[in-house]
Structure formats: structure tokens, C-alpha cells
Specification:
Blueprint: E1 5-11, E2 18-24, E3 27-31, E4 33-38, H1 48-54, E5 59-61, H2 63-68, H3 72-77, H4 81-85, E6 91-93, H5 97-114, E7 124-126, E8 131-134, E9 141-144, H6 146-156, E10 160-162, H7 174-197, H8 201-204, E11 207-212, H9 218-230, E12 235-238, H10 247-257, E13 266-269, H11 275-284, E14 288-291, H12 293-300, E15 302-304, E16 314-316, H13 336-340, H14 343-351, H15 356-381, H16 385-393
Parallel strand pairs: 4-5, 4-14, 5-6, 10-11, 11-12, 12-13, 13-14
Antiparallel strand pairs: 1-2, 2-3, 7-8, 8-9, 15-16
Length: 394
């Protein structure tokens, strides 16, 4: 029997923000929670020990990439992802839908650029059965169906799985978004049926989230929220808000969708997590969200700080102005990087192309976000979220 359970521990009086805890067989996830992305079953440049020290509760692993490499056989022999990678805390896997969407969008952009000239073989072909795609590694052909997605995620063994969906491109027409949404709904039923048939120790411990789609169209988003909420998913993911939409459109989608979601079900927003977005998501009632932002920025030398000269949330440590700077990255930060290294040294590491630069900057950025999320959770319970928001966003 699944040990997944969601508990609400506190609510904000001036917004829809809520603090809670998601119970899984591999441990608890305190919410609201930021979920780092570990595409290849690793958060780039971070060890498991680094993640433990930072306080990372759960991270997101990419089904598409692991299916292709190292392949399911290696992970199955390793008794699932947790054992394979040596991680004892919760894991999430996506459905592979977004990566397949990305390949499809590459092909769509080629069509736009070539304006009718002959194309190479399409990377993706979507049908009611599922999605045929070609590997970006060797060009080999593959078919992903809702049933296949669930089976692959079962073998991976993540605590939280995502139902197979069709993420339409932006900007899409209302007609296309409607067709993609309706197909997502039909695929949701097939995912639930496939999950109910799974056997084995791993599958009993796994939970499946349904996905709300509908583009940037209010009628479709409301329809999708109501339909997915009516199905027996313990949690709901909101997709299609990180494929080119503006921040306003993202907020609009949340305004339409979240009020229609059952309070007792967890809510995950896919692919969003910039600093100025976080308070918006939390105030709308989102419980968890994933984003590549802090890790990708870290590898580029962009460091998250509470205050900086140009009043942005980040400083570019690769700039020459920091070459002789003996200050820590952020004087308000207590991570081991800020306690032991200065800006000038990290600037040198980037200029010398030393790999340590990626680890130090990624560690700091993840620590920065985890620290912010802890502060937000406490503020919700103490009904002081508005004060914390003012402190951070003023």
C-alpha cells in the first residue's frame, strides 16, 4: 500500500498560501518546496552529500534521458533509481512529455526557418496511440505511450510520477491547445489504468500526479482543472507555463486553475522558479515547483544574492570587477561557500575554467533557495508571509 499522504499544517490569512508536508516512503517533503532538477539522475556538479548539506528534500529526474541512457536494464538491475544513485530521500520523475515536446518544437522551428524547404526526418510524431520520436543521441526510433511512460517510471522507482501529457507549443491556437488538452485527458485515463495494473514492491510505493493543460486560454484551463481534479490522482501538476509564456500569462493560468483544485491534493507547478515568481506561486497556493534556474545560472557564474549593486537578484561573478574582490558571494549567506571562499577566487576559477567553479556556485544558489523556502514556510505558519515578501521584494 502506498505511504503517500499530504498534510496541511498552516495557512496564510492574506493569501492562498499554505504550509504542509508530503509523506512518502523515502521521507517527508515540507511544503512549499523548491525541487531542483537532476536531469541525468544527478544535480549537475553536486554530490548527494552536497544536496544533504544544503537541505534538498527531493529532486526531479528526467525519464526521457534515463530511458535512453543508461537505459532501463541498468537501473532495474540496480533495484531502481534510489539504490542506483545512492539517494535515500524522495525523487520525482517526469513523464518524458516535455522533452518530447522540446524535440517537436525544434522541428517546428525548422519548418518556420526553412519556409517550406525539404526537412530532415521529423524528430517527433504525435498520434492518439502515443509519440514516436528519434533519439537525440543516435537517431534510433522509439514509441512512448501513456502505458510505456508509466512502465518506465515504475522501473525508475520515483516516489512521485507524472502522467503522460501533450505539452503544446507557445503561442498555440485555441484549436490546437484544445486538441492537445483533450488528448492529455484521454492519456490521463490510460495512465491511471496502467498504474493500477502495475505489480511489484516499487510500484506500490509510487504516486501518480495528473497534469492540467490548456495553453493560455481560460476556458480550456478551467475545463482541464475540473476534469483532472475529478480523477483519482493524489496530486496535480500544472504544465505548459514554462514554454515561452509571459509572467502575466503564468499568473493568469494559476488564477484560473488553482481555485478549482481540491484542497486535499498536492499542487506542483512544472518548470517555474525564478526568485520574483516564488512569492507569486506560494501566494496562489502552489505546494512545490521545479526549475533548472539556480543550477544553470550557477554554471554560468550568475550567483543569487539578496542585495546587489544593480538591484537584481544575481551578480555575474565572471566580470573583471570581481577579480580582486575579497568579500564572500553574499555577506548574509551562511553556506560553506560564503564562509570559506571569496568573489575574487571564484572569478579566477571561472577564468581558468576550473570545474570547482561550477560546484561552488551551484551549491550557493541551491542553498540560497532552500534558505528562502524555509523562511517562507515559517512565515506562513506564523501568518507573516506579507512581511517576509516585503523584506525580499522591496
Amino acid at each position: 500500500m502506498s505511504k503517500f499522504n499530504f498534510e496541511i499544517l498552516g495557512k496564510d490569512v492574506k493569501s492562498d498560501a499554505r504550509a504542509g508536508v508530503i509523506h512518502t516512503v523515502h521521507g517527508d517533503i515540507k511544503t512549499p518546496s523548491f525541487v531542483p532538477v537532476g536531469t541525468q539522475a544527478t544535480v549537475k556538479s553536486m554530490s548527494n552529500e552536497d544536496l544533504q548539506e544544503i537541505g534538498v528534500q527531493v529532486f526531479f529526474v528526467n525519464t526521457y534521458h534515463l530511458y535512453l541512457r543508461p537505459g532501463l536494464e541498468a537501473i532495474e538491475k540496480g533495484n531502481g533509481l534510489h539504490s542506483f544513485i545512492g539517494w535515500g530521500k524522495p525523487l520525482m520523475t517526469d513523464s518524458a512529455g516535455f522533452q518530447i515536446f522540446s524535440l517537436g518544437d525544434v522541428n517546428r522551428q525548422r519548418k518556420l526557418c526553412l519556409q517550406g524547404d525539404p526537412l530532415e526526418i521529423p524528430l517527433v510524431k504525435i498520434s492518439e496511440e502515443g509519440v514516436k520520436f528519434r533519439s537525440h543521441l543516435d537517431g534510433s526510433g522509439h514509441l512512448f505511450t501513456p502505458e510505456k511512460s508509466i512502465e518506465v517510471q515504475r522501473i525508475l522507482g520515483a516516489d512521485i510520477m507524472i502522467a503522460f501529457d501533450e505539452c503544446c507549443y507557445y503561442p498555440a491556437t485555441h484549436d490546437y491547445a484544445k486538441k492537445a488538452m483533450e488528448r492529455t485527458h484521454r492519456w490521463a485515463l490510460r495512465c491511471l489504468a496502467a498504474k493500477s495494473k502495475l505489480q511489484g514492491k516499487l510500484s506500490e510505493r509510487q504516486t501518480l500526479y495528473g497534469v492540467v493543460q490548456g495553453g493560455v486560454f481560460e476556458d480550456l484551463r478551467r475545463q482541464s482543472a475540473k476534469y483532472i481534479s475529478s480523477l483519482p490522482f493524489p496530486g496535480i501538476a500544472i504544465g505548459g507555463v514554462a514554454v515561452g509564456e509571459s509572467k502575466k500569462e503564468m499568473k493568469d493560468v494559476l488564477d484560473w486553475v488553482v481555485p478549482l483544485l481540491p484542497e486535499e491534493k498536492t499542487r506542483h507547478l512544472l518548470g517555474v522558479g525564478e526568485i520574483d515568481d516564488i512569492f507569486t506561486l506560494v501566494e496562489k497556493g502552489i505546494d512545490s515547483f521545479d526549475c533548472v534556474m539556480p543550477t544553470r545560472l550557477g554554471r554560468m557564474g550568475h550567483l543569487l544574492v539578496r542585495k546587489v549593486e544593480n538591484r537584481e537578484w544575481k551578480l555575474d561573478i565572471t566580470k573583471a570587477m570581481y577579480a580582486s574582490d575579497k568579500r564572500p558571494i553574499d555577506e548574509n549567506c551562511d553556506c560553506f561557500v560564503c564562509r570559506n571562499y571569496n568573489r575574487g577566487y571564484i572569478n579566477h576559477l571561472f577564468r581558468a575554467k576550473e570545474l570547482l567553479a561550477y560546484r561552488l556556485c551551484t551549491f550557493h544558489n541551491l542553498f540560497f533557495l532552500e534558505n528562502l523556502m524555509r523562511e517562507i514556510r515559517t512565515a506562513i505558519k506564523e501568518e507573516k508571509l506579507d512581511q517576509v515578501k516585503k523584506k525580499w521584494l522591496q
